[in-house]
Write a structure and sequence with these properties.
single chain, mainly alpha, globular
Length: 199
């Protein structure tokens, strides 16, 4: 009868424990990022309901894909983008899947950009979010303009003013959300480092 050595059993235990800790940490990060996204969407909805009396609408979907690029692996990041995007579609009354698929696409592009970028700077990610936000705004405007059967309209003058104001607001919000996420992720990362250092 073959018996495993105590050293082998010890290393097997540590390997299993490390994998369980890694999965647990990834799931915790998933919940944190999803929570930040959903809370931010709800807050923006409340702000827009107040601003609507002055004819102002902040369109900020560009905020909701880059945190998953920074902190999550690809599969969980895609799920985050799909859930957040569908939530945006419901709130903004856009076709289900418009924001979900768009955020997923830009998540994939952002992930590749981070992987290929040697010297990551936070301001670069904010500029990337700003460009993405403007592009999504243009696509949505063109889609509304070409869909004559839709009741919702976005006049060109208001579109320009809304995108301009949204571009101003997305810059500080992009920095702020990234810093909040980093502070929330620090205990998770430190816990994971501590667990690995015990091996």
């Amino acid at each position: 009868m073959i018996r495993a050595s105590p050293r082998f059993l010890k290393w097997q235990y540590y390997f299993l424990n490390e994998n369980l800790n890694r999965v647990k940490n990834e799931n915790t990060k998933f919940i944190v990022v999803l929570g930040i996204n959903l809370v931010t969407v709800c807050m923006l909805t409340l702000v827009n309901s107040r601003l609507s009396q002055w004819g102002i609408f902040l369109y900020l979907p560009g905020l909701f894909f880059f945190l998953s690029c920074m902190f999550l692996e690809s599969k969980r990041g895609v799920i985050i983008c799909l859930l957040t995007g569908c939530f945006l579609d419901i709130i903004l009354n856009t076709p289900i899947g418009f924001h979900g698929l768009s955020l997923t696409l830009f998540h994939t592009l952002g992930k590749e950009w981070l992987r290929g970028s040697g010297n990551y700077k936070l301001w670069r990610s904010v500029i990337f979010q700003l460009c993405t936000n403007t592009l999504l705004g243009i696509v949505w405007f063109l889609w509304l303009f070409s869909s004559n059967h839709l009741e919702m309209r976005w006049p060109f003058s208001r579109f320009c003013s809304d995108i301009f104001l949204s571009s101003i607001f997305i810059i500080p919000l992009g920095f702020w959300l990234s810093q909040v996420a980093e502070q929330l992720m620090t205990p998770i990362t430190n816990h994971n480092f501590k667990a690995e250092s015990q091996l």
